[in-house]
Each structure stands twice: as structure tokens, then as C-alpha cells.
Design brief:
flat, alpha+beta, single chain
Amino acid sequence: LNNGERSYQVLIQKIQGKEKFVKNTYSVKKKNFEIAIRRTDVKWELLDCKGSNMEEFFDVIDW
């Protein structure tokens, strides 16, 4: 996930905006390395569907 068609930006573009089984509402305080999850929403009807909330991971580690 570091260049060309395998870059994480390409991954994020493909998965953003799609319905997700789990969606977190969170804040990131990078100065203190603190992540606070305020809310977690689960859409049970999407349990048997493909999906990813991987962009949350990259949002947190994007320094």
C-alpha cells in the first residue's frame, strides 16, 4: 500500500462513501496520541455484505 495502484489513497477512494457495517464517530488528538470514540453505529442489515471502515485507521495514523 505505498505506490501506484496499491497506494492507500486509492484504497480509501474506493471504500469511502460506501455503506459500512460499523461506523465510528471519533476525535483524534495527535499531540497527546489520544483517540476518543464518541459513538459506534452498527447496521446489522449489512452483516453479510462486503465493506470496510479502513479509512478510519488511515485517518488516525495520518500524521
